[in-house]
Backbone:
């Protein structure tokens, strides 16, 4: 079993195309109460500053209200590395769904194949990648709800 203090020693770092999600699923589910009492501690480090556990958990809860619920619900995340990517990812897990992260440099044809093959009902994306997502949806002819990370961040 990992050491509880280990997680606090390594906050996530975003920037330069890197997100370190070391041991996060274990701690989100197992030690949520610990994080709540440590609300002021840093959870995410970005180029603009630090985000506390309180803020991170509030964002995850907010994103979860828009993410499909259920074990068989698949949701794609198609975005560059940013805080909203983390919020979308854990909101999917919070609702019991399956997260399908897709590299943000993928083409519309690649994304269309993934949409068709996975049977996803929803896709989280950034405004920067919205045109690629719309093109992929039209290529795949899939019925997918597109959510913009920028609208909820």
Residues:
């Amino acid at each position: 079993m990992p050491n509880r203090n280990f997680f606090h020693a390594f906050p996530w770092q975003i920037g330069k195309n890197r997100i370190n999600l070391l041991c996060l699923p274990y701690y989100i589910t197992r030690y949520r109460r610990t994080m709540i009492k440590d609300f002021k501690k840093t959870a995410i480090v970005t180029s603009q500053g630090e985000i506390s556990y309180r803020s991170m958990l509030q964002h995850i809860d907010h994103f979860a209200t828009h993410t499909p619920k259920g074990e068989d619900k698949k949701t794609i995340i198609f975005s560059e590395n940013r805080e909203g990517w983390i919020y979308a990812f854990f909101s999917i897990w919070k609702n019991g769904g399956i997260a399908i992260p897709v590299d943000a440099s993928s083409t519309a044809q690649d994304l269309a194949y993934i949409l068709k093959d996975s049977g996803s009902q929803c896709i989280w994306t950034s405004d920067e990648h919205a045109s690629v997502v719309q093109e992929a949806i039209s290529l795949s002819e899939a019925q997918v709800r597109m959510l913009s990370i920028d609208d909820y961040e």
